[in-house]
C-alpha cells in the first residue's frame, strides 16, 4: 500500500462563522478524503484549517511549511492584503522548492493579494491595486450588478449554477474525464464575479488550460492557469502549481446551495448544480485529477 498523499486545505483568514472559513469547504474535504484506489485504499489524507497567528503574527503551519510532511497545499486566499506575512510567504516558497505542489485561488478585485509575495504564483493572479492585468482593456467591471465590487470581476453565472468551460488544446491532464461524452471536463460551478488570472511573463511552463465566458459581456476570461515543474535560479525543481480565478469553484455553497452562505452574500442563487448531476461529477473529477497531478501521480 502506498503512503497517502497529504493535502493541506488552508485559508488566509481566521475562523469566523459568518465568512468563507474552511468549514465551508467541507464537501471538498470530504470528497478528497473519500477517494480510493483500485485496492480500496484511501489516496489522500486531508487536513483543513484556517489561518491562526503566533506571538509574532505568523501562521505556525504556513511559516514552517517547508519543514512539514505535507505533499501539497491548496491555498484559499480570502484576505485583502493581510493574509500572509513575509515568513508565511517564505515557508510556502520553501515548500514549493522541494518539488511539492500548490493550488491557489482567490476571487474578485483585491481578494487574495497577499499572494503577491509568492513569486510566479502571485504573478498568475491579477488584482485591482497590485499586479493588475497587463491588458488595460480589462480594467473595468464585467459584473454590473454587484456595483460595490470593482475589477477584475467576471460574471460566469449565479452561485448555484454551472458554466460550460472552454478547455484549451492540447487538453491538460487535469481536464480529462473518461466518463464524459467528450472525454473532458465540461462543467464548473459559476460565480457572479470571478477574479483575473494569467500566464506570468517569461515562464515557458505556464499555460492557460481553461477559459470561461462572461454571461454579461460575452468576453472570454482565464479560468485556470497551470505551471509544470521547472528549475529556478538556485537549481531547485519547483513543484507544479495551479491557479483558479475563484475559490467559488470549490466552496460548499457553489456545489450545493442548501449548504448556506455568509450573510453578506446578496446575489440571487441558481439551481443549475442541483438540476445537472454531471456538473458535480465534473468538478469532483477535476479535483481528483488536480490532486494527483500536483503529486506527480497517475491520473
Proportion in β-strands: 15-25%
Low-confidence segments, given as residue ranges, are none
Q: Characterize the largest beta sheet: strand count, sense, and whether it forms a barrel.
A: 8 strands, mixed
Kindly report how far apart the N and C termini lie. Answer: 17 Å
Number of DSSP helical runs? 6
N-to-C SSE series? Answer: EHEEHEHEEEEEEEEEEHHH
**Overall mean confidence score, pLDDT:** 97
Give the fraction of residues assigned to helices: 10-25%
Widest beta sheet: strand line-up: 2-1-3-4-14-11-10-7
SS class: alpha/beta
Defining key terms:
about 300 residues; alpha/beta; eight-stranded mixed sheet; two-stranded antiparallel ribbon; 6 helices; 14 strands
Question: Topology, pairings included?
Answer:
Layout: E1 5-11, H1 26-34, E2 44-49, E3 72-76, H2 86-97, E4 101-105, H3 120-123, E5 125-126, E6 162-164, E7 166-167, E8 187-189, E9 196-197, E10 206-213, E11 220-227, E12 230-231, E13 237-238, E14 241-244, H4 252-255, H5 272-275, H6 277-294
Parallel strand pairs: 1-2, 1-3, 3-4, 4-14
Antiparallel strand pairs: 5-9, 6-8, 7-10, 10-11, 11-14, 12-13
Describe this structure as you would to a colleague.
The protein has helices at 26-34, 86-97, 120-123, 252-255, 272-275, 277-294, and strands spanning 5-11, 44-49, 72-76, 101-105, 125-126, 162-164, 166-167, 187-189, 196-197, 206-213, 220-227, 230-231, 237-238, 241-244. The longest helix has 18 residues, at 277-294. It is α/β, with parallel strands linked by helices and 299 residues long. It is built from 6 helices and 14 strands. The chain has an 8-stranded mixed β-sheet with strand order 2-1-3-4-14-11-10-7, covered by helices on one side. The chain has a two-stranded antiparallel ribbon with strand order 5-9.
Amino acid at each position: 500500500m502506498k503512503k497517502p498523499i497529504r493535502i493541506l486545505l488552508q485559508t488566509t483568514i481566521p475562523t469566523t462563522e459568518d465568512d468563507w472559513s474552511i468549514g465551508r469547504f467541507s464537501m471538498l474535504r470530504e470528497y478528497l478524503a473519500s477517494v480510493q484506489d483500485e485496492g480500496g485504499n484511501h489516496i489522500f489524507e486531508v487536513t483543513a484549517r484556517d489561518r491562526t497567528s503566533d506571538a509574532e503574527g505568523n501562521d505556525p503551519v504556513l511559516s514552517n511549511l517547508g519543514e512539514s510532511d505535507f505533499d501539497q497545499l491548496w491555498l484559499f486566499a480570502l484576505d485583502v492584503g493581510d493574509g500572509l506575512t513575509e515568513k508565511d510567504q517564505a515557508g510556502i516558497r520553501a515548500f514549493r522548492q522541494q518539488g511539492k505542489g500548490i493550488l491557489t485561488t482567490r476571487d474578485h478585485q483585491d481578494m487574495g493579494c497577499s499572494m503577491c509575495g509568492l513569486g510566479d504564483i502571485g504573478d498568475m493572479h491579477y488584482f485591482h491595486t497590485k499586479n493588475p492585468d497587463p491588458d488595460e482593456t480589462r480594467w473595468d467591471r464585467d459584473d454590473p450588478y454587484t456595483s460595490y465590487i470593482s475589477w477584475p470581476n467576471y460574471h460566469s453565472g449565479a452561485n448555484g449554477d454551472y458554466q460550460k468551460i472552454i478547455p484549451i488544446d492540447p487538453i491538460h491532464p487535469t481536464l480529462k474525464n473518461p466518463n464524459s461524452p467528450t472525454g473532458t471536463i465540461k462543467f464548473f460551478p459559476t460565480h457572479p464575479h470571478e477574479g483575473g488570472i494569467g500566464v506570468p511573463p517569461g515562464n515557458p511552463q505556464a499555460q492557460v488550460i481553461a477559459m470561461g465566458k462572461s454571461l454579461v459581456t460575452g468576453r472570454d476570461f482565464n479560468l485556470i492557469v497551470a505551471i509544470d515543474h521547472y528549475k529556478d535560479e538556485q537549481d531547485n525543481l519547483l513543484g507544479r502549481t495551479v491557479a483558479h480565478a475563484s475559490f467559488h469553484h470549490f466552496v460548499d455553497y457553489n456545489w450545493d446551495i442548501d449548504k448556506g452562505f455568509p450573510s453578506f452574500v446578496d446575489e440571487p442563487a441558481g439551481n443549475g448544480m442541483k438540476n445537472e448531476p454531471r456538473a458535480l461529477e465534473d468538478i469532483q473529477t477535476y479535483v481528483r485529477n488536480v490532486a494527483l497531478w500536483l503529486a506527480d501521480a497517475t491520473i
